[in-house]
Design goal:
This is Outer membrane protein beta-barrel domain-containing protein. This protein has 222 residues and is mainly beta. It has one domain: Porin, CATH 2.40.160. The protein is 8% helix and 58% strand.
Length: 222
């Protein structure tokens, strides 16, 4: 789900106790993609969020970004993350809100696991996007540590369900598509992370079929 969602998904797959406390983040990206589709018409995005996690594994947070169709997007989420042996798990709920396009508001529940570094996650929405139809999204990623501060993460996602066709307006009558991304991330002192990514999707008729974008994110404790 865009670079932000890839990063959040990876973070929330980790044991909640590792993130106990309140944190914040601000970021700027040259493009904002959600599941392989630009949300800013290939223009830049300024984003930020606040998160709270408890040692029990419970977490909650809010995140916002500008978009090209809804003035700005605000996401509210909560969930529970932990570990069972060698398996990390994460379950939760997320609400996507768009200030000037409220008909596009929707909610999802999700669940995922991370095993031996491989992250798998499934999202379900009973009324996806601006539709009244259900949709599913399953995604997998595997971060490779190139050094202590440099990582490379390939990701693939699969969207399916009637809500994909009606909510994203696929014009070929299909209700499925794939998205792919490859993200190089570099962390530096002070809580900064620089990212460069390439992303694409399998559809010819949806905005932002292919994209290269860069970003800088600053994380901080509250």
């Amino acid at each position: 789900m865009k670079l932000k969602h890839i990063a959040v998904a990876a973070a929330l797959m980790t044991s909640g106790s590792a993130f106990a406390g309140a944190t914040g983040n601000v970021a700027a990206f040259s493009n904002y993609l959600f599941r392989g589709i630009t949300q800013t018409a290939d223009d830049a995005a300024v984003q930020g969020g606040l998160d709270y996690s408890h040692a029990s594994g419970f977490y909650t947070g809010v995140w916002t970004s500008n978009t090209s169709f809804g003035s700005y997007e605000t996401d509210l989420y909560a969930g529970f993350a932990g570990k069972a042996g060698e398996v990390a798990y994460d379950v939760g709920y997320i609400f996507y809100g768009y200030r000037d396009a409220t008909k596009a508001n929707f909610s999802e529940i999700y669940g995922g696991i991370t095993v031996a570094g491989l992250g798998l996650k499934l999202y379900y929405s009973p009324e996806f996007g601006a539709s009244e139809d259900e949709a599913f999204y399953v995604t997998a990623n595997y971060p490779f540590a190139l050094s202590e501060t440099l990582s490379l993460t390939p990701q693939i996602g699969y969207s399916f369900g009637d809500g994909v066709e009606t909510g994203i307006t696929l014009t070929d009558g299909e209700d499925t598509y794939l998205d792919y991304s490859l993200t190089l991330s570099k962390t530096v002192e002070g809580g900064y992370t620089f990212s460069a990514a390439v992303a694409a999707n399998s559809e010819d008729d949806i905005l932002g079929k292919e994209a290269f974008f860069v970003g800088l994110k600053k994380a901080f404790d509250l």
